[in-house]
Amino acid sequence: MSIFELIYKVKDIMTNGFIKINKNETIKSALNKMIGFYRDEVIIVDDDGKMIGIFTMKDAAEIKNKKISLEDSVMKYAVKNVLTIDCDSSARFARDMMIEKHIGRLPVIENGEIKGIITNNNFRDTFYLKMDELFKLQNDIFDNLHEGVCMCNERGIVKYWNKASERVYGVKVKDILNRYIGDFFPNAMLLQVLKTEKRIDNVFHEPVRGKFVVLSAFPIYNSKKELIAVVSTDRDMTDAVNLTKQLEDERKKVEFLESAYKSELSSKYNFSSIIGKNKKIIDAISIAQKVAPTSTSVLITGKSGTGKEVFAKAIHRASKRIGNFVAINCSAIPVNLFESELFGYVEGAFTGAIRKGKIGKFELANKGTLFLDEIGDMPMEMQAKLLRVLQDGVISRLGSEKPIVTDTRIISATNKNLTELIAENKFREDLFYRLAVVQIKLPPLKDRKEDVKDLANLFFRQVSKEEGIEINNIDERIYKNLINYKWDGNIRELKNVIQRMVVLSNNGRITIESIPEYIRSENVKDYNYNDENEYDLEKIIENAERKTIESVMKMVNGNKNRAAKILNIKRSTLYYKLNKFKL
């Protein structure tokens, strides 16, 4: 519907000064009244005042040619099946009806009573006046829009420039009107549309240095399909862009400070292989750093994949012990081989023994560190033998009674609750106290959200180097997905995912599509958001806002104008939030 149709009704342009005559009047009486009141028609009504016909000067001329008596009843020669229209119909509809039906007048009826009449003269006399009113109305509308509106003719000459455009660009209408748009904006998108005759929608553009807008432009054609103008609308995004840049600068400053802090931390504690800003990790590093130079036994607890062996190696490196770091997984050794693996054996000790015998892990770790991983899976009978070694520091190879003195530091680790195993008589309490002189508990990765990005980057570098695959571009959005995932497999799972992404990368690019689908799925993101901190009101509101915007954008197939209306927010606000949430 056009503005003309919306604003102007039949009642705005109809003539109230029509002539009514009774059905019983003569032709002569009708003519005299038309001549006397300078009208081309009379409305014929019945005794109740209801219109029943129209008699016009054209009808009178035809009667004269036929030599009919002027004393005859006017009703006999009147047009009886008269088309009518109501007061609230649009003026445009009335005009179209008159053209289509080839009629010169249209009575206006309300509740069965005639209120006026529309003739061709009405349109001729009121058209220019109404058009002036319409142009003023349109100017008022455009001047109160938040968006800048510019219209150029087919040669790029500015023919309209609203007040919002003055505010956005600081160019007054008196200075730019009837001037070539390219003189003010050399890279104006209007010029591109003039050249290609193709519309553009919601393009991020910088018309002049430092001024950012979201711009749409479209061509206008006349009835002959000839291009006659181009119109653009510009939404000022400069403040939002500048705010985004400021936030990015602040983010870089924070990252720099975090990097400096991490470097200082690594240098101070000598745990450069451990990535972490999380308080629990920092506390664990602090404890490990203090205990590292001693011979004290350390028990490291935490779920599988949390980095227990990495911590054990770091403690060993910081201990300055000259021997080897030797690791053994207690859950992977058959029960009947446990003793031989730990203490070694001599030739002929048992069937299948290596001819020259074999050195055990304790001897390999002499002057160094023996790491007993998954200590909770060690058989009870082996626990007693281990306890004896820890008490006196002497071992004997299987099949030999010769004592061997070792100086081996024990670091053990488990993902099980040893206190519960003790209560169930599955782990020796005295061994527990021997192993857990110092305990270090490592948090799961889901409680270390702030460390995920740094760990991911570390693994990107490591895997890239190991696989000989150069990675030169990483989509920032992948970090949000990685941070929001639950990571049941902890750091080990993260490294496996990173390895998959690297080996399946294309042209050195890690994109959002590189992330496995199960990590990107919506339900996983929702789960982890609540899991991270279910009572953080600000984050809950932000998450709900992100989800709502994402849902509406999908519903309207990316139409930002429609989305803004549905969300009941300004389009500039929508653009800011889309950029904020990287949607």
From TrEMBL:
Keyword annotations: ATP-binding, CBS domain, Nucleotide-binding, Transcription, Transcription regulation
Manganese recorded as keyword: no
SMART domains assigned to the protein according to its UniProt record, in alphabetical order: AAA (SM00382), CBS (SM00116), PAS (SM00091)
Domain PAS: 141-179
PROSITE patterns referenced in this protein's UniProt entry, alphabetically: CBS (PS51371), PAS (PS50112), SIGMA54_INTERACT_2 (PS00676), SIGMA54_INTERACT_4 (PS50045)
Pfam families, A to Z: AAA_lid_14 (PF25601), CBS (PF00571), HTH_8 (PF02954), PAS_9 (PF13426), Sigma54_activat (PF00158)
Residue ranges of domain Sigma-54 factor interaction in the record: 274-503
Stretches that traverse the bilayer: none
CBS domain boundaries: 14-70, 78-133
Protein name: Sigma-54 dependent transcriptional regulator PrdR
Organism: Clostridium moutaii
Organismal lineage: Bacteria, Bacillati, Bacillota, Clostridia, Eubacteriales
